[in-house]
Every structure is written in structure tokens, then in C-alpha cells.
Design goal:
Elements (H helix, E strand, L loop, with lengths): L2 H8 L13 H12 L10 E6 L2 H15 L11 E7 L6 H18 L3 E5 L12 H6 L11 E5 L18
Antiparallel strand pairs: 1-2, 2-4, 3-4
Length: 170
Amino acid sequence: MNQVIETILSRRSVRSFTEEPLKKEDLEIIAKAASYAPSGMNQQSWHFTVLTDKVKIQKLADAIAEVLGREGYNFYKPQALIIPSNKPDSAWGRDDNACALQNIFLAAHSLGIGSVWINQLCGICDNEKIRPILSELNVPENHIVYGLAALGYPKAEGKLHERKGVIDFI
């Protein structure tokens, strides 16, 4: 089996990370992979924020916890977050960012880095407790976050779940 297919089939969500910091060059490669995702009409209207400061990561998690009533929320204590954002009036912004996130997850996995999709910011980006923090992180004021990637070296391999869905060959 070729390496791309192997990476796709073996990637799992990871929700428990080690304390080992990620290499900057690996994060740069992962962010570059995100920017190579397909985008509607090649508009590339996204913005990517790579966050490795644990205090800032927890500050964002705490604000989300307060807004959503999720005491103790912490993004699973990752070593980094990659936050794709997009213009709310972009017809394909959500789809474009989903493609970018998939590239992030696959690139991370290929480098031995675990990842998980975090969707708690969707719908609350402009909350008075959230937007100032996003602004501090250089997420553009006119952008929204549909999902983000929590990254770190996995403490254990992700669990293989039964694949669902129907594939018809006609």
C-alpha cells in the first residue's frame, strides 16, 4: 500500500498528549500542508494561527469553558493548536477550513504527531469573552473559527473504530 493511503487509513484522533514540545520545523510543515488544501475557486481566504504558548492555550480554553459551561476544559492539554479561520461571508469558508484541517491531521500523523479536531469555537467566536482573546492571537477580527486542531505527541495510539457508511460500486 502506498504511504499516502497508509497515512489516511491509520490516522486516529488522539485525546491524550505527552508533555514533549513539538519541533518548530514540524509545525511549519504542518501549517504549510494546511495552506495547500483545496479551496473554493482557489480563493484561499483562510488564515492560520499556530499557537504553542501553553498559558495562551489555557486562557482560550478557560474562556470557552466559561462561555459553554464546561468546567475544567483544556483542549486535552495539547502542545500546540492550529487555528484556521475564515471570512464569514466566504461561500466555501467552512468547507475550505475543513479541507485544511484534514491536511493538518494527515501531515501531523505522518510526522508521528497526534491530533484531534476541536469544534467548541464554532458559533461563539464573536462572544465578548472570546473575541478579545482571538484578537490577541492575531486571528483576524472579521474571521470565524469553524474548528481547530489540537496537536501533541500521543501518550497512546488512537483507538480504531468500526467504519460506517455504505460504498456502492455500480
